[in-house]
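Q: Sequence in, structure out?
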Amino acid sequence: MNLQIDFSKGGNDTLDRVIEAYGFKTKVALADHLGIASSSLANRYKRDFFPSDIVVRCMADTGATLEWLATGSGPKFSGDALDVLRIPRQKVVDGLVYDSGTLMLDKDTFLPGKTVPTSPLCIIEGLKMFIIEKSFSEVFDGEWLVEIEGKTSVKTLTRIPVKRVRISGTGAAFDCAIDDINVIGRVALTIISG
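A: Exactly. Output:
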């Protein structure tokens, strides 16, 4: 591969591809993810220099290839040859859900011998990242992503007689009819950071 990069220009197109690789919809989402002020990102767009620091981080986070990020040609992800699961990622803050890009998950490392989710979603809540399986036929005992009165979080559900469920986790446990809550999906995998 003979990749030629002009570091004095092309930063705008590269930053647009970084946003696409992460799965973000806005420049503000990228700035938030990188932990920089949106004005700093706007300055990078204005200068149009190649953003090598951001490209390296994007490659590490998403598996996007240098060739595609820098030039727009070639395969987008190095994981195209690997058995990688691309999962939409969301963050839960105070019960509200916000888009947070895409998670690249190596199936052999994180899901060896497990059933791979058919409709996965990654939820970040505090220091935990949950891989949620949104496709299910019925609710059974275990951890689930639920929405209760407009607030979303991962809770432990225990089935009790006649279409009721005990909900526990943060806060006091309580019982309610299963139809009184919106069950989004079950936790297939929990990753704890920190």
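The longest strand covers residues 96-106.
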